[in-house]
Design goal:
Number of helices: 8
Distance between the termini: 72 Å
Strand order of the largest sheet: 1-3-2
Largest sheet: 3 strands, antiparallel
Radius of gyration: 23 Å
Structural class: mainly alpha
Number of strands: 3
Helix content: 55-70%
Strand content: 5-15%
Length: about 160
């Protein structure tokens, strides 16, 4: 036979189960909200980029090289925040797939510039189209103005102030 204390505990557990969770603290945190949005989008990203055998960082590299041909490895490394040794491994893999070429920098023989191959450019366009569609679907609850504002605000968090 349950004791009074146990019955009160059962009632308290039932009452808690019937109440919505108070997430006020977590929902007030930029990082938490960014992470939740990320977790909603990334499975779709991985699914669609998996069709092209591209990881997140691969997509970033292809997209940057598509928009900025002949940039140096150093500039690319800084843009995507990947250490030079790790970037070299990544570039080796993309080069082996025939997606990019390294070329000696004519202005500084100690460095290399990067350019997409025709196959790499086709892959970049295809991936960018898939990601654009995915982003539109993932942010369908936002108006165009809200989406633009969200992007602008998030960029203010990670980009240095422009004075």
């Amino acid at each position: 036979m349950p004791t009074k204390k146990h019955e009160k505990f059962i009632e308290a557990v039932q009452e808690a189960a019937d109440q919505p969770l108070n997430q006020e603290m977590l929902l007030s945190l930029v990082g938490y909200n960014c992470r939740r949005a990320y977790l909603a989008i990334m499975p779709l990203f991985h699914e669609r980029m998996g069709e092209l055998e591209l990881r997140t960082v691969d997509f970033s590299v292809l997209s940057l090289l598509h928009a900025n041909p002949n940039i140096t490895q150093k500039r690319l490394s800084q843009a995507i925040n990947v250490s030079p040794p790790n970037l070299a491994i990544l570039l080796d893999r993309l080069e082996a797939r025939g997606l990019l070429l390294r070329q000696r920098n004519p202005l500084d023989k100690r460095s290399q510039t990067l350019v997409l191959t025709p196959e790499g450019a086709r892959m970049a366009v295809q991936a960018e189209e898939k990601v654009s569609t995915l982003e539109s679907e993932a942010t369908a609850a936002l108006s165009d103005a809200e989406r633009a504002q969200l992007l602008k605000l998030l960029q203010k968090v990670f980009q240095p102030a422009r004075g």
